[in-house]
Specification:
The protein starts with a strand and ends with a strand. It has a nine-stranded mixed β-sheet with strand order 4-1-2-3-5-6-9-8-7. Helix content is 20%, strand content 29%. The chain has helices at residues 56-62, 72-78, 114-120, 128-131, 136-148, and strands at residues 5-17, 31-43, 46-50, 67-68, 88-91, 109-113, 152-153, 158-163, 185-190. It has one domain (5-190): Metallo-beta-lactamase, Chain A (4-Layer Sandwich), CATH 3.60.15. The radius of gyration is 17 Å and the shape is globular. The chain is α+β, with helices and mostly antiparallel strands and 192 residues long.
Length: 192
Amino acid sequence: MKNRRIYMLKVGEREAPSINHLYLEENAPPRLLTCMYFWCVVDETGPVVIDQGFSAQTLKDLNIPFRFEAEPTELLRRIGIDVQDVRTVILTHLHWDHYSGEEFFPRATYFVQQREMDFVVNPLIRYRALGRFYNPAALEKIVLLHRAGSSSSTETGIFFQASPRSGPAGIPREVRGWSWKPGKAVRSSAAM
């Protein structure tokens, strides 16, 4: 059996209205503390990052009040991970706190579930009720790649191609020995 270490890395926290958490109880507090994390799983094949967090610049660009702990790259450095060693990033979904468009991991292959891509290319995403949890600049980048089609690339060296395997929350079924139920995903590789 493989020896895996799992790290939960806190990017920061903020107070948010209870309704953001679908916390609809009568006596709910008006605001709740929301902590933002990403994950890093490390085994003998190297680190796998699940979601990737965001930068202080994203918070500034989106005008989000936030108590920021550190950049994701710094949090990984603190546990001994060099960003150049990250070869796999799994994005559970594309909300700004999971993917904000920064290219923290230049050598990584990114996995995104196909259903999430279908959702973000829907014209209704431009309405605040649906689009408020996304970073418009990050979506523009990823949507352009998605619309370009399977195995396409841009001058940035990011490639997308359809993959027939994904599991719960769009996590790919086969990533370095992990396995889940069949589904569909989109894969992106950043060139070295």
